[in-house]
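Our collaborator T.R. sent over the components below with a one-line note: 'Predict the complex.' Nothing else. No constraints on interfaces, no templates requested, no preferences about which chain binds where. So this is a plain run: every listed entity goes in together, and whatever single assembly comes back becomes the starting point for the next discussion.
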Amino acid sequence: MSTQVTTGLHIRRSVQLTIDGQSVTVAEGETILSACRTMGTEIPTLCFGDTITPKNACRVCMVEVEGSRVLVPSCSRKVEPGMVVRTDTERTDHSRKLVLELLGSSVDLSLTKNVARWNSEYEAEPIRFGKPAAPTNDRDEATTGHHHVADGSSVVNVLQPVKIDNELYVRDYSKCIMCYQCVDACGEQWQNTFAIGVAGRGFDIRISTEFNVDLTDSACVYCGNCIQVCPTGALMFTSEYNMREAGTWKEEEQTQTDTICPYCGVGCSLTLHVQDNEIVKVTSPSDHSVTHGNLCIKGRFGFQHVQNRAE
Amino acid sequence: MDLKVNSSVATRDERDAVDSVLGKPTQYTQGGTRTEQDLRISRAGEALRNLRHMLLPTLHAVNDHIGWISRGSINYIAQQLDVAPAEIYGVASFYALFSTTERPKRQVHVCIDLACRAMGGLREDELPEGTHPSPCLGTCERAPAVLVIEAGNPARHEVLAPATPVQINALAKGAWPEAEPSIVSATPQADDDSTKLVLLGRIGKVDPLSITDYQQHGGFVALRKAIQLGATSVIDEVNASGLVGRGGAAFPTGRKWGAVAGQPAFPHYSICNADESEPGTFKDRVIMEGDPFALVEAMIIASFATGCEQGFIYLRGEYPRAIRNVQNAINESKKQGFLGDNILGSGFNFALSIVRGAGAYICGEETAIFNSIEGYRGEPRNKPPFPVEVGVFGKPTLVNNVETLVNVLSIVNDGGATYAALGTEGSKGRKLFCLSGAVTKPGIYEVEFGITLRQLIDLAGGLRSGSTLQAILLGGAAGGFVGPDDLDLPLTMEATHAAGSSLGSGVVMVLDQSVDMVDQLRRIAAFFRDESCGQCVPCRVGTVRQEEIISRLAQGVQSQDIEMLRELGTVMRDASICGLGQTANSAIDSAINKLKVFAQ
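Returned assembly:
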């Protein structure tokens, strides 16, 4: 616990802890999750994104820490010297199973990575809570602190119509797990635009513009940085949405090509996702030291001219 | 920030409401009239955003004056504070007392919670038109209760309890309730001179609005003594007293004070958690209504001991008389020099103000309270870091419950050792219990720790005639049920813990044979669903599934549903961010396991 690791200009102490009976040494300030990843232990995560401060809202990454009454979110809890962590116990497995079931029974996780695998690993069966209720279109008008008392005949969920109010991207909040990443990316962590916030309370919480106005009436600048961080496909390029609707979206046939944005002198890195020689969406590498995955409207959506081929 | 507001414009009344808190805008970008200078410079940014904590009071002003919060007023607030409309909408839509849709000026909130429904109050499906259901209004000693709010300048707030269906109807149609009865009715022990009350000693005997009367009844003696002792010795006395937090979590008070006092970062802040919302709890309300100066004095002592120069009393929005009386106590104390600079010549400066809650049980969580005060959604924060290190505005913060603080006065006056001699080994000192339901004299009772449940109920005159005991809820919705066999349970932290229950905030709700226990459980489940902040999955979805399963059980018991409830309880307890989710299943679990409510 006394050695020092020098990283850049900062001197960070190293911290020794025990994970699943194995001693591991990582730099001070690391999280339990990153320590686990260092040693090759997989912990499921849903709301965790690599460019946003962890909100630890989903609670799927919970681990046991000796001395703690409750489980601890590994994505955000910093390592401490002498910490004894267990990642694979009856309690952690139960929590992960139930979180997967609670989300699976209330949200469309069909485009969320790894969920099917984790469901089988943790024996999660979202359907056991009961028959899913029909989609609703009044979630944006919920009255805070009030709800219709459940009769238990079906289980409520967040399924609702897709919001299509502009040409560039769609918002399918049936798929939203409330990870808060889009809000943080739009707001103080990246874009400082604050076009969207979290509204309502309890099961009625939702990502919303003020008074649920269309994006075109909001402060949105269409940087698409919210799409970049969305882990569930709730936010999606219109191009991708249309192709998925038409059944022509074939991710396995797509290529990804890194290039430099041609618009201004910053020179952001772009990753062009191409299918059948057409750009179908644009991302940016989240580990890039300049963009951290962020772009502006031009880099994100202004690619049509590339495809303006002479007939 | 490059603020974008849409075209909705605030009305003159809305602007006046906002300006009553924030003052007139000084420049165009803040919503003022454009001057020649505005064409060249714009002051905004940090200076304005540092006023973010004014957001909650500003929303209150608009909601109070107008009755609801419109797009135009949110735009105007956005300009005045340089906060984005989407964020303000997020905050406004977090609180149940605010509305972002137009509604009548008069709002009649009918309590449909545990104590009121046990006492013949209306249920959510029985409410007359023009009224709507409310969670526990903390007036359980006079259940069933109604809170009427009428928007205007000034807005009017009044509680009517007990309220008959006829009276509720009349309120919805425009009648106004008479002023509440004297608070002494909530402390039945006050009639009996043989009992020496300390925490409740002044209630009914002093004029709660008179600082002179307070001083004639021993007021501000403890403060003088505390200043004489010095901060460190005050903390030593609190440590020696063995006092633990009375809000429900029972953390040693002296340790908390010592931790805040020792923090190198400044300023330190003190917060009195007066957001009493646990169903069945009303002790803090009674203290604030009946002896508000005691709370102010205790806050000054706590802040003196821990080096806090600014304090907040986060007071539940549904407590109109407590707000009036505490505000008066703060004003009078300021006039007399007990608040402000150089208090009693000690060199200690302290400013104290009320932050009014807006209808959110979760804001009684000690970190949610920070977000609420700072003008954000009242969502709990992660711990660590703990409030004593990183609290409100990111600074070391002391958070104490009303009852905890008021205990400090006698600890300072009589010494920690005297206090520690009261009660039991594991639960020292005096405790207030909130008796409601089927007892002859419901109210707040002050006792020494160690009294049994049976003795406490006897103190309250026993069961009402015609009542036989069915169950007792200890600690509120976040606590647990015990049955008629548990009457000899000593009401101490250790004994209730061993019995699988909790004293929590001191709720003792006595339910007789007339109460439908399944209905009580459905209400508990609905309560947690309504009050979950929604941040974490186990609580946001778990409370919904819990309610659905209980509704199914009410129609026919299936063993897999019981098992599923148990599993939900485990994940909520293990994996929720805060105490709300962690305890959302505890009363239901106790009813199933102990009372066998759903036994087949």
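Summary for T.R.: Chain B touches chain A through 68 residues (CB under 8 Å).
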